[in-house]
Amino acid sequence: MQLEGKVALVTGSSRGIGKTIAHELAHRGCTLIVHGSKESDALRSSFEDVKKLSPDSIKVAAELSEPAAIDKMFARIKQTFDGLDILVNNAATQNPSPVLELEQEDWDRVLSVNLRAPFLCAQHAGRIMRGNKTGGKIINISSVHAYDARRHYAHYSAAKGGLETLTKSLALELAPYNIQVNSIVAGAIATELTPLDRQEKFLTSVPAGRIGTTEEIARLAAFLSSNECDYITGASITVDGGLTLGFCASRPDL
Ligand code: NAP
Known about the structure:
The protein has helices at residues 16-27, 41-53, 67-80, 104-129, 154-174, 196-205, 214-224, and strands at residues 7-10, 31-36, 58-61, 86-89, 136-143, 179-186, 189-190, 212-213, 236-239. By secondary structure, it is α/β, with parallel strands linked by helices.
């Protein structure tokens, strides 16, 4: 699965899952736009690692709750590259709160970063990709909480639920331009920031008996970025070690 010569934007690739996706794509031959909300050591370090594999890559800092910052990021991409082949909408924020205490400001922030920004990025990317001879790929990083409620995550769940239906709407309307749009529905994935006690909590509730790795998401993202899967569009692929298989799956005693 080679992606030689493709240009890819991975939002939120300064750390966590996005960082591993950016590195996987660079490893397979892509030139990357490495993105973070702001200039930070994490962004610089992720970018330096990518550049070792893919020297023409660039880094961009853009606060995704601000539509003007998204416009600016795409202006830079258009200035720097002839086109864009792959968009991974990965960046997201969370700010857990009991639903009755949830402030409108927090609701708006989570919805703007986790749902409006992927829409705006997909719109910008789609307009570039429709001019590509080889079409394009958009991959939305979603969550099992798009479907399964979690206490104190009403805004996050609503945004991810919206991202799931947005994936299908984009897939439908962009299919004539040979642009495929899919989502990865992630379960519990360990990033450098996941505390060990949270990882341990999942040992019994995940049928696979462990938390997932960022590489397990990144390998699927690379596959969905490739021409191996040009007939897959509008799909939501769950990567959760069986976490959402149902009540009995999470109860080894039953
Ligand atoms: P993470 O480690 O918290 O990293 C988040 C990334 O998004 C960072 O690069 C961050 O940039 C960027 N970001 C956050 N807020 C932003 C904003 N307002 N504007 C621009 N960029 C922003 O996240 P993660 O755990 O890897 O999660 C990545 C994706 O997977 C998310 O969509 C998340 O919902 C999904 N997911 C994760 C899990 C999990 O268990 N980890 C499970 C299911 C789904 P800075 O470094 O500048 O802050």
